[in-house]
Amino acid sequence: MLKIEGLRAEVEGKEILKGIDLEVPAGEIHAIMGPNGSGKSTLSYVLAGREGYEITGGAVSFHGQDLLAMEPEERAAAGLFLAFQYPVELPGVGNANFLRTALNAIRRSKGEPELDAMQFLKVARARMKALSMPEDMLKRGVNVGFSGGEKKRNEVLQMALLNPGMAILDETDSGLDIDALKIVADGVNAMRGPAFSSLVITHYQRLLDYIVPDKVHVLMGGRIVQTGGPELAHQLEASGYGSVQAA
Ligand code: ADP
Ligand code: MG
Ligand code: MG
């Protein structure tokens, strides 16, 4: 599904990613853990195609396609979902229109017919009921006045509607409480299946109590320095990142 080889990237002339190798097969959920400043968010931004990150080496393929050669919209159309792609509030942009536009862009690229407002509402309402989301969240501006938990629910709704092949979640700095963690975890766990992969990026082990990963990778100083099973997350929680030998 996702294959990263020798990936190097710079921000403002400073090398942050120093040769990342990582493969996430279809159907697997991998976690990336690491101390602050290790490059976790940089990796997610590079995979998203955010501006300002210069790729200086390596390759990334997604479903066999050269991800780094694709525009951010093309990455989304190919089935890559970034959980924090739209963290901002958009006053004046109705949440229903926003979600429908995102969904229709992907449907168009797949050659599927677009949904009109009524068709979309039907699909969205069914999903929202499953997520215990009040219906008025569709009428409000995107994330405007949403609580932290409501923003999480909205992201999970967006993910469920877009049905991506791969979701990348960077939770590191979002200061989620337990309720919000559970919303995200339930959303990801509901997507689990042979055609879904996820890269869960987190500073804390807590989230991984709810989303049990197939593999855990430790990122330090811009490199993956250790890979293990779910038990590695518990080990790190107990002994800290100091116990991991930086490569
Ligand atoms: P993490 O998410 O693991 O905490 P980041 O990817 O946010 O780490 O940051 C990795 C390193 O890159 C840090 O040393 C940070 O200061 C630096 N960095 C990140 N973004 C920028 C930027 N826009 N300009 C300069 N340095 C940056
Ligand atoms: Mg950080
Ligand atoms: Mg970060």
TrEMBL record:
<keyword id="KW-0547">Nucleotide-binding</keyword>
<dbReference type="InterPro" id="IPR010230">
    <property type="entry name" value="FeS-cluster_ATPase_SufC"/>
</dbReference>
<comment type="similarity">
    <text>Belongs to the ABC transporter superfamily. Ycf16 family.</text>
</comment>
<dbReference type="InterPro" id="IPR003593">
    <property type="entry name" value="AAA+_ATPase"/>
</dbReference>
<dbReference type="GO" id="GO:0016887">
    <property type="term" value="F:ATP hydrolysis activity"/>
</dbReference>
<dbReference type="InterPro" id="IPR003439">
    <property type="entry name" value="ABC_transporter-like_ATP-bd"/>
</dbReference>
<dbReference type="Pfam" id="PF00005">
    <property type="entry name" value="ABC_tran"/>
</dbReference>
<dbReference type="InterPro" id="IPR027417">
    <property type="entry name" value="P-loop_NTPase"/>
</dbReference>
<dbReference type="GO" id="GO:0005524">
    <property type="term" value="F:ATP binding"/>
</dbReference>
<keyword id="KW-0067">ATP-binding</keyword>
<protein>
    <submittedName>
        <fullName>Fe-S cluster assembly ATPase SufC</fullName>
    </submittedName>
</protein>
<dbReference type="InterPro" id="IPR017871">
    <property type="entry name" value="ABC_transporter-like_CS"/>
</dbReference>
<feature type="domain" description="ABC transporter">
    <location>
        <begin position="2"/>
        <end position="246"/>
    </location>
</feature>
